[in-house]
């Protein structure tokens, strides 16, 4: 399969791309790094990417910026930014990608466990995580040509906690999180949210 991994050099995206590269042709995409550059917050940029690499068999998105702040400090701009990047940026990969993906292809987006396991400061992220899960459920019932869409929901990733100066053992190593993405790409699931903790080694 030809698989596009958006965020393929990121904390989660890199081990996902590495795992898939064992069996598939992987194209890594980032805003500032990778085989191709694209900004998922810009529809024009995404279409340019698809025109350059199409047709493809699977797309994984492990990208999407979001603002983490106490509820009382979240501004209109914080919500607009988070919705445009993390929610609509990823939704638009599916909407715009429909024209370029081959029959039986798949889209795998990245949500997060904050959709159902809220933490202080995470309201904007809980919003987009839950929105992505709803989008995948809704879109799956009307995707044509045997196409599929799923969301992978990672917990805190160990490497990210360590970057934040926290105890990495409270999280899941990115290499283990990658297993859920591989299941979404290579399996038959559609419209599902895959909790990464159900697939990795820990
Ligand atoms: N890490 C965690 O603990 C965790 C937990 C749950 C959910 N998540 C979600 O998982 C996703 C990936 O997280 P991460 O920790 O792997 O992030 P990361 O290490 O910051 O990597 C993000 C990757 O995405 C690319 N990217 C960022 N914005 C982009 C854009 N607008 N268009 C195209 N590419 C873009 C970056 O490319 P460049 O480097 O080239 O700019 C980078 O390769 C995020 O949506 C995050 O909310 C993360």
Short description:
The chain is of the alpha/beta class and 202 residues long. It is built from six helices and seven strands; from the N terminus they run E-H-E-E-H-E-H-E-H-E-H-H-E. Strands 3-2-1-4-5-6-7 form a seven-stranded parallel beta sheet, sandwiched between helices.
Structure overview:
There is one protein chain. By secondary structure, the chain is an alpha/beta fold. It is 39% helix and 19% strand. It is built from six helices and seven strands. It has helices spanning 13-21, 43-53, 76-97, 123-140, 158-163, 174-186; strands at 2-6, 25-30, 36-37, 56-61, 101-110, 148-153, 193-195. α1 (13-21) packs across α6 (174-186) and α2 (43-53) packs parallel to α3. The mean pLDDT is 97. It binds NADP nicotinamide-adenine-dinucleotide phosphate. Residues 6-7, 9-13, 30-33, 38-41, 62-66, 85-86, 89, 110, 112, 154, 156-157, 160 line the site of NADP nicotinamide-adenine-dinucleotide phosphate.
What is the element layout, followed by pairings?
Blueprint: E1 2-6, H1 13-21, E2 25-30, E3 36-37, H2 43-53, E4 56-61, H3 76-97, E5 101-110, H4 123-140, E6 148-153, H5 158-163, H6 174-186, E7 193-195
Parallel strand pairs: 1-2, 1-4, 2-3, 4-5, 5-6, 6-7
Helix pairs in contact: 1-6, 2-3, 3-4
The structure holds NADP nicotinamide-adenine-dinucleotide phosphate (NAP).
NADP nicotinamide-adenine-dinucleotide phosphate binds next to α3.
């Amino acid at each position: 399969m030809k698989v596009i991994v958006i965020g393929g050099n990121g904390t989660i995206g890199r081990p996902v791309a590495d795992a898939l590269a064992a069996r598939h042709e992987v194209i890594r995409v980032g805003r500032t790094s990778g085989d191709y550059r694209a900004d998922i917050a810009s529809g024009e940029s995404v279409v340019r990417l698809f025109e350059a690499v199409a047709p493809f068999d699977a797309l994984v998105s492990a990208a999407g910026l979001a603002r983490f702040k106490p509820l009382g400090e979240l501004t209109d701009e914080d919500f607009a930014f988070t919705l445009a990047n993390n929610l609509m940026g990823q939704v638009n990969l599916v909407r715009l990608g429909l024209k370029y993906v081959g029959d039986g292809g798949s889209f795998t987006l990245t949500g997060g466990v904050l959709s159902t396991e809220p933490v202080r400061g995470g309201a904007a992220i809980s919003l987009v995580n839950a929105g992505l899960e709803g989008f995948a459920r809704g879109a799956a019932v009307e995707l044509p040509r045997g196409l599929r869409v799923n969301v992978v929901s990672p917990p805190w990733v160990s490497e990210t906690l360590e970057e934040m100066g926290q105890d990495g053992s409270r999280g899941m190593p990115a290499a283990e999180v990658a297993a859920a993405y591989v299941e979404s790409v290579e399996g038959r699931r559609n419209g599902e949210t895959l909790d990464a903790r159900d697939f990795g080694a820990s």
